[in-house]
Amino acid sequence: MRVTLKCVGFTNQNDLRLSLRREVDQILAKGVVPTPTPAPKPDQNARFAAFAVSNSAGEYGIAWGSQTQAEAENAALQACTNLGFSDCSIATWYKGDTYGAIAKADDKSSTGWALGSSREEAEQIALRGCRERAQNPDSCKIVFSRSANGLRAHG
Fold this sequence. Notes:
The protein is an alpha+beta fold. It has helices spanning 13-29, 69-82, 119-133, and strands at 48-54, 60-66, 88-95, 99-104, 111-116, 141-147, 152-154. A 4-stranded antiparallel beta sheet has the order 5-4-6-7, covered by helices on one side. The protein has a 3-stranded antiparallel beta sheet with strand order 2-1-3. The chain is elongated, with a radius of gyration of 26 Å. It starts with 12 loop residues before the first helix and ends with a strand. Mean pLDDT is 80; it is low at 1-8.
């Protein structure tokens, strides 16, 4: 609820204070109790995720639910390396309720990845990226979709 107080036409602060006090008393008499809105707190429980990509093969190592950005990046690099690739590098990292998605063409001619504020947004952008480069654009499918906090859709 929002309350607007009228504060016009006063020549001194005492008159203003008295008028404001009367208006506040009238509001409280009606049973309206204003409560301050707490300042938003940073999400201390937000987790991190990262994608590492092999530039030669277009394959990804993925990590999510990590406590720090560095932990997510290291885990993604390790996952990519564990696939047998030595040219892995971090493609991106993200945090909290942000979603990451990866789309791949069936023939592996193209991969697209994206971040979004929703699962649907991330998946649509990833599919668009895959289809732009795929030999058969209709073969692109979502192979991974998850928030950094671990909310899962695919994968």
